Amino acid sequence: MSSIIIFLEQNKTGQISKASRAAIKAAKEHADLHLGQTNTSLYGCVLGQNSKLAAEQSSLYGIKECFFSEDPIFNHFNPWLWSDMVFKIAAQLEALSVFAAATSIGKDFAPRTAEKLSAAQISDLLAILPNNKFKRPLFAGDLLAEVEALTEKKVCTVRATAFEPQAEIPKQTEFKAINIELSQDLKDLVANAGSFVSSDLSPAGRPQLNEASIVVSGGRALGSAENFEKYIYPLADSLGAAIGASRAAVDAGYAPNDWQVGQTGKTVAPTLYIAIGISGAIQHIAGMKDSKIIVAINKDPEAPIAEIADYFLVGDLFEIVPQLIEEIRTAKLP
Amino acid sequence: MKILVPIKRVPDYQSKVKLTASGDSIDHSTTKWIINPFDEIALEEALRIKERGCANEVVAISIGPLEVEAQLRSALAMGADSAILAKVDQNEIDSAVAASILAEIWKRSEYSLAIIGKQAIDSDASQTPQLLAAKLGLPSAAYASKVTINQEKKQAEVTREIDGGLETVLVKLPAIISVDLRLNEPRYASLPNIMKAKKKPLEIIAAETLNINLKPLIKIHKLVAPEKRKTGKRVENAKELINYLKSEKIL
Questions:
Q1: Which residue of A has its CA nearest to B162?
Q2: With A54 labelled, which of A35, B1, B50, B181 sits at a CA distance of 20 to 30 A?
Q3: Is the pTM of this model over 0.90?
């Protein structure tokens, strides 16, 4: 009997994130292809506020037992504490693999867990391949590598856009949600690991960039933060879309850091990606090239983004964007 | 206070990577090497911390063949006080091996801080800073966009770029900090500093004398270029675009 632990992230209402459901899907494929489906069990771990609800919900996705804790110690992420929790559960279950979505939380704690388990880590997993191999990107996705983890135990951070989020499956009768007992040494550890000061989060309202089915992104050609707001925001809102930005637009202060799409920012793969005034540097393309439909609007007919766009509209974005908003309004009228 | 800044040499991001005929490795015969841009930001931050009087020594370290001396000399020219070259003969090392070497180097002196790029732009693994922290049993703060050192309290206040925005945390020193893109703008080395860098101390340590496992945990079997997207249609105006999107059932 082998076990896989999947670290799950929940939103404010206790729903398991789409990225974490993609991690469940990847773990299942790993179980099927590498470990043997019938004798592998999936365990979950979810920490912090609303984790009880999320743990209970995890049974819908084929998790056998889910560990959770709503102790205030988990109110703010701490890589040391998180990695230690996941390690302890993995050690207790003698788990062979640990999976987590490649989010800012997953990427931060997973290597620490890997170190404690003497496991190799596959970062940004793109696909499970036969013969114990995994596919992952190198050089901003310019190359794909087929890699093997040479250790008995493995840790994988999963690129959420590469796997379908796990769908609901018939509920298992034997599911258990297990409240984690916190030991004193763990509480001491936290005191030594550092402390939370403050956060400055983007206001909720629009869909999250990495979960949205439509993303509207703006680039340097917008020219100012005012124009970014004047043209990109209403277009995104007319489509119910999330907003992204190129590195150039973020560097110029037109959009906040966490909107950056690309090698060093977020990877997105929505149904529709609209790139406005973005020339298409390889580092930007790395973050959006797996989108289903790519639309680019650019005044330069030779912009590199034209090579990957399904629909390319050459022209002045300041004229085209308001026309687009108008057309979308008309198209949506009954 | 002494700061360790690990530096990885990576192929220039402006050049196209080439594969060897066997397809299991990269053809480096014409590669132009640079310092990983994130590590350059890390070094700049270490230098600024020193210039603010919060540190007295910045040590750059790189792992690789003797040729990485070129990148270490660049780091010395930027302002690092000394450099260590951990020499490895094998071509590829992974994050686990790199972190093991860095941990041994760390233990040889009294460092209070290691500042490292959050990822290398070739392997894109984003593991080494966290692995190093785990190996040394130290706190860490990843994806820094602002770092303030409080020497009296022996702690660092770090603003981190996270998925939803920014988060500020305190970590006790010694600690490992990984840096993000917008922490600072690295300086260019001046000509006099480039000359001075040639005389700064650079110690070469053969990695096999460190008594650690140098065997990678990850084996790369094959490298392939991803499938190219097909070039699409040019559309004339907003109306035509919307009609296409409607026909794709997207709107």
A1: A104
A2: A35
A3: yes
